[in-house]
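[step 3/7] inverse_fold.run input=structure_tokens len=100
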């Protein structure tokens, strides 16, 4: 049997302007920006939490990290739903490896 995980589905409010959506990505997930031949790294609040972005607005995390992710998403007024899942042992190892 594998480790407990959570699948989190979120959606930002439809009235969010594009600039605020970009800022959300930078502040929550982190981003690499390039301009005039230079690169700068913007670190996000959840960058150190091992996760998989399955699709736009869908993330898989370990069960222990689920509340942190949900809290951060709700700070941005996102609609959040989540479900507990059991990760296969190989997927649990892959998430653990993303910590290193």
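[step 3/7] decode complete -> sequence:
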């Amino acid at each position: 049997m594998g480790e407990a995980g959570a699948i989190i589905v979120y959606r930002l409010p439809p009235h969010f302007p594009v600039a605020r959506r970009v800022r959300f990505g930078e502040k929550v997930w982190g981003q690499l920006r390039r301009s005039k031949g230079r690169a700068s790294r913007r670190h996000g609040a959840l960058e150190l939490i091992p996760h998989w972005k399955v699709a736009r607005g869908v993330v898989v995390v370990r069960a222990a990290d689920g509340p942190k992710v949900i809290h951060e998403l709700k700070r941005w007024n996102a609609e959040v739903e989540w479900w507990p899942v059991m990760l296969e042992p190989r997927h649990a190892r892959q998430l653990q490896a993303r910590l290193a």
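[step 4/7] annotate
The chain is about 30% helix and 35% strand.
Strands lie at 4-11, 31-35, 38-42, 51-55, 58-62, 79-86.
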